[in-house]
Amino acid sequence: MTEPASVAELDLGPASLLQRVGRWRRFLRLRPFDTSTAEGRSDERYRRIAWSTALSTAARFVGMATGFISVPLVGGYLSADSYGIWLQMSSFVAALGPLDLGIGLGLLTVVSDAYGRDDRTAARRAISTAIAMLGTIGGVVMAIFGIAFFIVPWAHVFGVHSQPAISEAGPAAAVLVGAFAIGLPLGVVGTVQLALQTGYISSAWAIVGNVASLAATILIISMHGSLPVLMLAMTCVGLPLALVNGWFLFRRQRPWLMPRIHDVDPRAARSLLRTGSLFLVLQIAGLVAYSLDNVVIAQIMGADAVKQYAVPTKLFVLAPTLLSFVLVPLWPAYRESIARGDAGWVRRALRRSIILAALINIPSSVALVLAGPFIIGIWAPALHLQPTMLLMVGLGTWTIMNTLNGPFGVLLNGANVIGFQAACSVLMAIANVTISILLVQRIGVSGAVYGSVISQFFFVLIPELWYVRRLLGRLADTEPIAESPA
């Protein structure tokens, strides 16, 4: 089967960068392509990926801008102890994240697959079940916290010793936990939109939410509100917006996906938990592998040495973060195209994602290896950092490896190959911590990144390369499903 001309012209060959951008611009149109043909479905996938990339990037920048503005506003308004509580809340939220048991990521895979098979019933059943499960988890979290609220010494937990911070610590935590619990089932809306390759809609609502939260924060400060009220403005403004977004999704855009109580299915729950638990293992392994580097350095070399590693690392994560805006929308697109048997599109999309990753990661890494110390000197002169070339080369190598790791991981997610990735990630995490400890003892802070490079190369990159080759071979034997999408 030959590649449609409308898609073939997108191939990232020797054409100039401006020509490539010009070819992609036509996908930033509002009107969907005709999806009754293979050509139209391919073009529509690229259109949705383009819009998701553009709006998710805009949402991230708006989020960074509102966060940048809110820091001096809140810091100048709150007392030192109250501001300390505010800063600790972000870590508190991160600790609550795994409580969803990976159900959201499992739902993403299930709905994407059902969309590719035009199975509206399966999609609605999974959505209804996920909302019931996440709502139950949220209720349990609130019940447990309701008991803990009167038992836990919150002032001690947050390390505050003055008023009004002592009296505000517990209520501020209650607001945060309440917003998290309510947000669990509401988060299904954004997950479903991502699964349907319309993540740009949830990104647009995120932009509105960030701006509204900043406006609410400014209003509360002007009215001299307390820390819990300020937390309410920052964390809860997005909840009614999520409800509105859900109303549009389930009542106006795709009413056949409206969650129903009688569609809650124990079999769907088991499927979501099975897939979600593997995603949870994958997330925890990644957290252990990459978040313990600072701990290893602190334990071996002292807390002051952590900044020598942590600050340069922040520069090198920018390119992978930028790349993720493009790769994440590919996940549901892969799932849908695999369900339809469109192996050609999968191969083309993977090739282009690797080329794009190389265009982003390699030049930026080389530039940061050479100019990183100078940039850090301008960016954070008060820290007096002098990163070694050994550290910078290691960070650059880690970033360049993401050129394959990122695209491969998204493809395997789309193909629902989660158990294999989870096993590789667990082995990688164990090797990473072990090798990092040995290398930090011998070569200093640079040892942490080389532990990541070595373990990721042998336990993630090589196994993924082997599996992806097998996967593409199997997909080549499948036949496209000639039917119109939902």
Write a concise keyword list for the protein shown above.
486 residues, mainly alpha, 19 helices, 79% helix, 0% strand, globular, disordered N terminus, disordered C terminus
Summed up, what is this model?
The chain is mostly helical. The protein has two domains: 41-264, no CATH class; 292-475, no CATH class. It has helices at 5-8, 17-25, 38-77, 80-96, 103-116, 120-148, 154-158, 165-195, 199-222, 227-236, 238-253, 266-291, 293-301, 306-316, 318-339, 343-379, 389-414, 418-443, 446-475.
State the helicity in percent bands.
Answer: over 70%
Q: Please count the helical segments.
A: 19
> How far is the first residue's CA from the last residue's CA?
24 Å
Shape: globular
What does this structure look like?
With 486 residues, this protein is mainly α. The chain folds into two domains: 224 residues, no CATH class; 184 residues, no CATH class. 79% of the residues lie in helices and 0% in strands. It is built from 19 helices and no strands. It is globular and about 65 Å long.
Topology record:
Elements: H1 5-8, H2 17-25, H3 38-77, H4 80-96, H5 103-116, H6 120-148, H7 154-158, H8 165-195, H9 199-222, H10 227-236, H11 238-253, H12 266-291, H13 293-301, H14 306-316, H15 318-339, H16 343-379, H17 389-414, H18 418-443, H19 446-475
